[in-house]
Design a protein that fits this description.
This protein is 50% helix and 16% strand. With 222 residues, it is an alpha/beta fold. It has one domain: P-loop containing nucleotide triphosphate hydrolases (Rossmann fold, 3-Layer(aba) Sandwich). A seven-stranded parallel beta sheet has the order 3-2-4-1-5-6-7, sandwiched between helices. Helix 5 links the parallel strand 5 and strand 6. Helix 1 crosses helix 9. It is globular and about 45 Å long.
C-alpha cells in the first residue's frame, strides 16, 4: 500500500479539497482500491463528503489522531492501493505522525504572501519526519502574476514543486455539494484537467521516491 499524507499547518489552503479530488483521480487512473483517512477533527469535512457521496469508493474513514496507525493498518489489511491522510492544521504532533507513516507528503500552498510565509512550519515538520515531499500550488489566480511569484519562492525549498497549478475554480467546490469530484461533475473542464495532471505528476514522484528507497535499501545490505 502507498500512503500519501496531505499536510498544511495553515488552514484555508484547500488541503481537504485536493485530497478528495486526488483520491477520486487515483481511483480512476489506477482502477485499484483507494481510501481517505480523515483525522481533521472535529471538522471532518472529508468524512462528511463521504457520507454525501452515492458511490462507495473511495472509502472514507474518520479517525482520531491517536487512531491513525490502526486506520493505516486496516487499509493495508483490506488491500487498499492508495491511502490518503487528510490532516488537521495548526496541530504539529498529529501532522508529524502522519508524515512519518507516509511514503510521500504533499504540501498544498496558496499563492498569497500569508500562505507562502506559513509554509515554513509545514516544511519543518516534514524535514523532521524524513519523508520525501512535494509542493503543489493551489488556488491560483487566473491571469495574475502572483502565481509565478509564488512558484519562484516555493522553488527555494528543497522539495519538488508541481509544474501544474491548481487554479481557483468554482467547479472544485460545486462538486462537493453532493459528494462528487470535479472529474464527475465536469470531466472535460479546466479544473478536472488540472486535478488529473497534478495527480499524474504526484504519482510519478511517488514512483521516484519508492525507487530511491529500494536502491538505498539494496545499497545498505551490501
Amino acid at each position: 500500500m502507498i500512503t500519501i499524507g496531505v499536510l498544511a499547518q495553515k488552514g484555508g489552503v484547500g488541503k481537504t479539497t485536493l485530497t478528495l479530488h486526488w483520491a477520486v483521480e487515483a481511483l480512476e487512473q489506477s482502477k485499484k482500491p483507494v481510501a481517505v483517512i480523515d483525522i481533521d477533527t472535529p471538522q471532518c469535512s472529508a468524512a462528511a463528503w463521504g457520507e454525501r457521496r452515492e458511490k462507495e469508493t473511495p472509502v472514507v474513514l474518520k479517525a482520531e489522531a491517536h487512531q491513525l496507525s490502526e486506520a493505516v493498518k486496516a487499509c493495508a489489511a483490506n488491500d487498499i492501493e492508495y491511502a490518503f491522510i487528510d490532516t488537521m492544521p495548526r496541530v504539529e504532533r498529529p501532522s508529524l505522525e502522519a508524515a512519518r507513516m507516509s511514503d510521500l507528503v504533499v504540501i498544498p500552498c496558496g499563492p498569497s504572501i500569508v500562505d507562502i510565509e506559513a509554509i515554513g512550519d509545514t516544511v519543518s515538520i516534514v524535514n523532521e519526519s524524513g519523508t520525501p515531499a512535494v509542493i503543489v500550488l493551489n488556488q491560483g489566480r487566473t491571469g495574475s502574476s502572483v502565481n509565478d511569484k509564488a512558484l519562484s519562492v516555493l522553488k527555494q525549498y528543497e522539495f519538488p514543486v508541481c509544474p501544474v497549478m491548481v487554479m481557483r475554480r468554482a467547479a472544485l467546490a460545486d462538486a462537493f455539494t453532493d459528494g462528487r469530484a470535479v472529474r464527475e461533475l465536469d470531466p472535460h473542464g479546466k479544473a478536472a484537467d488540472e486535478i488529473s495532471q497534478s495527480w499524474a505528476w504526484i504519482a510519478k514522484e511517488l514512483r521516484r521516491a519508492k525507487n530511491k528507497e529500494v536502491k538505498t535499501h539494496a545499497q545498505s545490505r551490501r
